[in-house]
Design brief:
The chain is globular and about 35 Å long. By secondary structure, the chain is α+β, with helices and mostly antiparallel strands. Helices cover 46% and strands 17% of the residues. The protein has one domain. Strand 1 and strand 2 form a beta hairpin.
Length: 76
């Protein structure tokens, strides 16, 4: 599916996004602390402006896996 890679690039190039992980046909976007709502609004606006539709987007609380990924990404 071409839409997922395009959305992944869009999310990666969004201010306050720390990482974007692909899980099948879904993306897990981790933002800087306290910036989730702003990033969500920004992405919704940019997706709509590009004439695309989004099946859904929701905030989820950080899990242990998110902490692991953040630590793994921080390693040199």
């Amino acid at each position: 599916m071409k839409a997922v890679p395009a959305l992944r690039r869009l999310a990666r190039n969004t201010l306050d996004v720390e990482s974007v992980q692909l899980f099948g046909d879904r993306l897990h976007v981790r933002t800087r602390a306290g910036m989730g709502e702003a990033v969500t609004a920004n992405l919704r606006e940019r997706i709509a402006r590009d004439g695309a539709t989004l099946a859904g987007m929701r905030a989820i609380p950080p899990q242990l896996e998110d902490v692991f990924m953040a630590l793994a990404e921080a390693q040199p």
